[in-house]
Description:
The protein contains no helices and 5 strands.
Amino acid sequence: MLTATIDALQTSPTASFSVGDVVTLKDGGPRMTVTYSGPVALNPGDWLICEWFDEYGELRREMFAPANVRAEPRSIPAGSVRWQQISRAA
Length: 90
C-alpha cells in the first residue's frame, strides 16, 4: 500500500530555481517567470530576478530571495483563468 504523497507545489527551503521556472510569492501575487538565478552584485547569497505583467499589461521586473517564492506549474488549467471584462471607449 502506498502511504506517501507528493506535493508538486511545495518547495523545500533549499530548492533551487532555474531560468524559465514559474513562481509566485509565498504571500501571494502574480505568476512570475524566473529570468535570472544566482549571485547579484552587492547582495550576499543567491537571488532570483523575476518578470511578470501587471494588471495594466506593463512588464515588471523585481529581485527576490529564493526562500520567499514557491514553484508553480508551468501550465494553467483552462478553468482556473479569470477573465476581466475590458471596455474601451470608441
